[in-house]
């Protein structure tokens, strides 16, 4: 049995309407429930030309499974740099075919380690899309995704590809000053203390890149992106980055921090975007067994947010429930399990970042992926105007329920 608690301030008016639900999520129940009826696979929403599916009777199970689109995937580069941006996008489900995109975690190791462990072939993992297939007709909203500290831009492909199947174009830049390569290289060279990350600037540059792509007649994304609807999702340090982005960039309509936030928890700045909270809708999610970003910090960060806001906790889940990392070595401890297999020494401070939540007894992270997909998709659809209510975030599947208020958040 899985437990999901959700707490929300959901009023868009000056009148606060606090509402909360505590549920018990059964993965067996989730797997037996199909999609809500899709009334149109490509339909106009809000008169802007967005070809996002219209879903009738949206509820807490509508987005558990993949949406009606196939998923394409391509790699762009931030202008003037070699920084890659991985992009997942909607493709025609009935006609797309080609080579499935993958990534090899070995490519994230510093060059010196790749040379030292030349016999290690790496771990190849599917990243959710088909490489460079044509994009589906129509226009689609854009979501930028920010990976975690010591992570990489393809670290959460179960989620990024899922969003693309529901009509979002998801662009994830590599944060080269705090990705796995940079962090490991810092330990190898003894230069582990670095300047403040440029991750918000990376996200801003990614937004500019996608805007140029949709206006370029030669681009795969030519006239396919609705840049007037923009969401931001991030994991861990990326959660802090997207919250700061939502403060500094007025184009951002909604932010979602997965086991990470900027105001009220770790990484808060005394000045700048990190010293305040966004004015747009925010969703924070965390695992109650997180040993990296402790639940009390996420609760504090939630309490500091402006309304409308929502807090979701996944009981018994760890820090890496929001990524693919545990599944790189299923049941063996994620990235740390791989390192142990090849006798690669890992600094103690990095062990939780590469393994937290990967070895929970009888509780694989994949059991929680459906609810992450459901809640992130539902929040984006509501905040960007595709669903009139937050029904996709309410009454999560469960057999017990209790009401609390926004001022009585369950403590960790």
TrEMBL record:
Keyword Transmembrane among record annotations: yes
GO biological process: lipid catabolic process
SUPFAM superfamilies cross-referenced by the UniProt entry: alpha/beta-Hydrolases
InterPro entries: AB_hydrolase_fold
Lineage start: unclassified sequences, metagenomes, ecological metagenomes
Name listed for the protein in its UniProt record: Unannotated protein
UniProt entry keywords in alphabetical sequence: Hydrolase, Lipid degradation, Lipid metabolism, Membrane, Transmembrane, Transmembrane helix
Bilayer-crossing regions: 15-38
UniProt organism field: freshwater metagenome
GO molecular function: 1-alkyl-2-acetylglycerophosphocholine esterase activity
Pfam families the UniProt entry points to: PAF-AH_p_II
Gene3D superfamilies per record: alpha/beta hydrolase
């Amino acid at each position: 049995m899985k437990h999901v608690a959700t707490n929300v301030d959901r009023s868009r008016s000056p009148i606060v309407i606090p509402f909360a639900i505590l549920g018990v999520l059964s993965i067996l129940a989730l797997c037996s429930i199909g999609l809500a009826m899709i009334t149109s696979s490509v339909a106009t929403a809000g008169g802007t030309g967005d070809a996002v599916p219209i879903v009738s009777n949206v509820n807490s199970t509508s987005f558990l499974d993949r949406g009606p689109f196939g998923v394409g995937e391509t790699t762009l580069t931030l202008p003037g740099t070699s920084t890659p941006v991985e992009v997942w996008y909607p493709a025609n489900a009935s006609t797309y075919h080609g080579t499935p995109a993958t990534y090899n975690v070995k490519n994230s190791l510093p060059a010196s380690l790749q040379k030292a462990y030349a016999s290690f072939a790496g771990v190849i993992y599917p990243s959710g899309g088909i490489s460079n297939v044509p994009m589906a007709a129509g226009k689609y909203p854009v979501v930028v995704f920010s990976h975690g500290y010591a992570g990489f831009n393809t670290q959460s492909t179960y989620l990024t590809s899922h969003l693309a199947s529901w009509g979002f174009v998801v662009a994830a830049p590599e944060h080269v000053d705090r990705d796995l390569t940079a962090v490991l290289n810092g330990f190898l060279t003894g230069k582990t203390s670095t300047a403040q990350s440029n991750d918000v600037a990376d996200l801003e540059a990614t937004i500019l890149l996608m805007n140029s792509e949709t206006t370029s007649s030669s681009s795969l994304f030519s006239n396919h992106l609705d840049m007037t609807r923009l969401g931001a999702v991030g994991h861990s340090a990326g959660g802090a980055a997207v919250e700061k982005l939502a403060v500094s960039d007025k184009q951002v309509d909604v932010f979602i921090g997965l086991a990470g936030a900027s105001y009220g928890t770790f990484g808060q700045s005394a000045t700048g975007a990190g010293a305040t909270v966004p004015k747009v809708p925010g969703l924070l999610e965390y695992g109650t067994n997180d040993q990296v970003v402790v639940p009390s910090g996420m609760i504090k960060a939630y309490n500091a947010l402006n309304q409308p806001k929502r807090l979701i906790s996944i009981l018994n889940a760890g820090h890496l429930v929001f990524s693919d990392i545990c599944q790189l070595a299923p049941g063996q401890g994620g990235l740390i399990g791989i390192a142990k297999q090849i006798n690669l020494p890992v600094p103690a401070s990095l062990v939780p970042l590469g393994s937290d939540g990967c070895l929970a007894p009888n509780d694989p992270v994949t059991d929680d992926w459906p609810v992450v997909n459901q809640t992130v998709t539902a929040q984006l659809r509501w905040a960007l105007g595709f669903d009139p209510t937050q029904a996709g975030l309410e009454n999560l599947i469960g057999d017990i329920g209790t009401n609390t208020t926004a001022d009585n958040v369950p403590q960790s």
